[in-house]
Amino acid sequence: MDKLRIHGPCRLSGTLRASGAKNASLPALAACLLTGDEVVLRHVPRVRDIVTMSKLLGHLGVERDEDPSGADGEPGALRLRANGHGSAPDEAPYDLVKTMRAGVLTLGPLLARRGHAKVSLPGGCAIGVRPVDQHLAGLEAMGAEVDIDHGYIHASSTHLPDRRLQGARFRFATRTVTGTENLLMAAVLARGTSVLENCAQEPEVGDLATLLRSMGAHIDDDGHGTLTVEGRRSLHGAEHRVIPDRIEAGTYLVGAVMTRGDVTVVGTRPADLAPLLEKLAEIGAEITTEDGKHNGSIRVRHDGDIGARDLVTAPHPGFPTDLQAQYMALMTQASGAATISETVFENRFQHVPELGRMGADIRIVRANYAQVHGPSRLSGATVMATDLRASACLVLAGLAADGETVIDRIYHLDRGYEKMESKLQRLGVRVERLSS
Q: Could you say which of 10, 32, 125, 393 is catalytic?
């Protein structure tokens, strides 16, 4: 099992290009199941979750080809074509979805186009229960027969006219990104109009809607969490460029402040990172941005004291839960006390004991509420990554720590960060991968 070794302390300095967003690429890959035509995806990152999803799609009858690398070292375009009705399996087995939650995103498109789906209940990071009950309730509202048996979701529309789901009005009890994406993909091929209320508004959801529109779907977004979808009998192929990864970019920008560095991330969209940039500005960082659909940039510089600031995570447009662990690492270097409230997932402080091993002073007051007292002088240690974003948090702590930090179980990191050690090396970090 690979490990990452960091020799600290380091100061991040330089420029890097944002990878494509993992959390936008995964639903885009699933969307290829909605048509028999070719779907071309650009700017898809080379990370473990994408490899896993590609294997799952291959099992479901999707042919995949990759062009040579694109401009500026970007991955080449992925070309995907799904087999037609009844000519490929409609089961997403446990062995192919146990390491990532995104496997459940095949449920909506399989059911919508093939009339039946058998999908293993999802795996992924152990950061909370993350039930799929709203996915299933929404599909039932569209007329599907849904059952859970021996760890698998069984869904069918074969009893409906033409085996097609029926348009429906459905309101999510709480906002869910994968739930919104799943029902959106189901609705685009349903008979009639669907109105989905209280939808997640994360940029990755908007990116999926953009792809689906380019495939011929009719989706109206009121900008306040309601999506109105006029179902189509079929969709066609399309070409789509995935949005930049805001979480990856945010991780390096937090690192810039934490190490009193100067980092520019190009090929990103500043608006997607507004909650983080506002928080870094409060701390005292100097921030310069240039807007652009795919070629914007963000520069963050900081060379003074770090001010402690409280944080509450929330669904978009609030502060993203996927940057909470990284922010906590930053607060270990801040002067004063900061409280961090995690409102999205109930088990997302697993990195706290590992930060404590490095010398951080963090007290969990209750399950989703922690107090960070700083600044702490961190020292290198061997630590264990427990989930994807906790891995990034420990990397940042290693940058600020004195001595050698070894991060074990970095397969979590490889699920969502493309060539992280190479990017860190370009920013001046002494880091190496240890292969077992």
A: 125
Tokens found for residue 4: 């990452």
One DSSP character per residue, 300-318 reads: EE--S--B---EEB-STTS
For residue 267, give the H/E element and its range: strand 262-268
Spell 59-94 as b/e; 16+ CB within 10 A means b: bbbbeeeeeeeeeeebbebbbbbbeeeeebebbbeb
pTM tops 0.85? yes
Cα(408)–Cα(225) distance, integer angstroms: 40
Residues 272 and 255 in one domain: yes
Bond prior to 353 in cis (omega within 30° of 0):
no
11 with 32, same domain: the answer is no
Across the chain, mean pLDDT equals: 92
Asked whether residue 85 falls in the same domain as residue 156, the answer is yes
pLDDT at 96: 83
The percent helix, strand, coil of the chain (3-state, each to 5) is 35, 30, 35
> Residues 8, 56: one domain?
no
Task: Output the pLDDT for position 350.
Answer: 84
Per-residue pLDDT tens for 28-41? 999 999 999 999 99
Q: What tens digit of pLDDT does each residue of 63-109 get?
A: 999 887 766 667 779 999 997 655 678 888 888 887 777 889 999 99
Question: Which one of 240, 271, 288 terminates a domain?
Answer: 240
Overall domain count for the chain: 2
Cβ neighbours of residue 190 under 8 Å, at least 6 residues apart?
A: 112, 142, 164, 165, 166, 167, 168, 229, 231
| Residues 167, 286 within the same domain | no
3-state class of 334 per DSSP? coil
With contact defined as beta carbons under 8 Å apart, do 156 and 164 qualify? no
Give the pair of three-digit tokens for residue 336: 């004063």
pLDDT digit string, tens, across residues 289-330? 999 777 899 999 999 999 999 999 999 999 999 999 999 999
Where residue 171 falls (left for φ over 0; alpha for ψ -120 to 50; beta otherwise) is beta
Give yes or no: 32 in active site. Answer: no
User: Is 96 within 8 Å of 52 (Cβ atoms)?
Assistant: yes
Within this chain, do residues 281 and 167 fall inside the same structural domain, yes or no? no
Distance of CA 61 to the CA centre of its chain: 25
DSSP for 118-135 reads EEEPP----S-----HHH
Domain residues for the domain of 149 are: 22-240
